[in-house]
Write a structure and sequence with these properties.
The chain has 106 residues and is mainly beta. The protein has one domain: Rieske Iron-sulfur Protein (3-layer Sandwich). The protein has no helices and 10 strands. It has a 6-stranded antiparallel sheet, with no helix packed on it. Strands 5-6-7-8 form a 4-stranded antiparallel sheet, with no helix packed on it. Strand 6 and strand 7 form a beta hairpin. The mean pLDDT is 95. Bound molecules: FE2/S2 (inorganic) cluster. FE2/S2 (inorganic) cluster binds next to loops.
Amino acid sequence: MSDWVDVAPEGSLANGEHVVVDVDGVDVAVFMVDGHYYAVEDACTHDGAEIASGRLDGCEIICPRHGARFCLKTGAVLSPPAYEDLATFSTRVRDGRIQVRDERWD
Ligand code: FES
């Protein structure tokens, strides 16, 4: 089972801000939207662009390279040219720290 990885102090991300952390060798983008934390792999499933540098539209992220749109809550792809969902990761706040964990291989 993978361990929880420290992201940032709770309260350090303003609404719509994100931080990218290395989780077991995978770049994971953790966003704060309306008081909730959402974590997705920072690689567009279309052609690998760093999705975190795209524009946020509510809980949706728009890829900066070709404009594919994804749901941050579920990772679901919402518009082409991407056709595969983003990987998502569990988040939590523990002892005043935002944390993330990769549970895909547990
Ligand atoms: S790399 Fe993201 S839409 Fe092409």
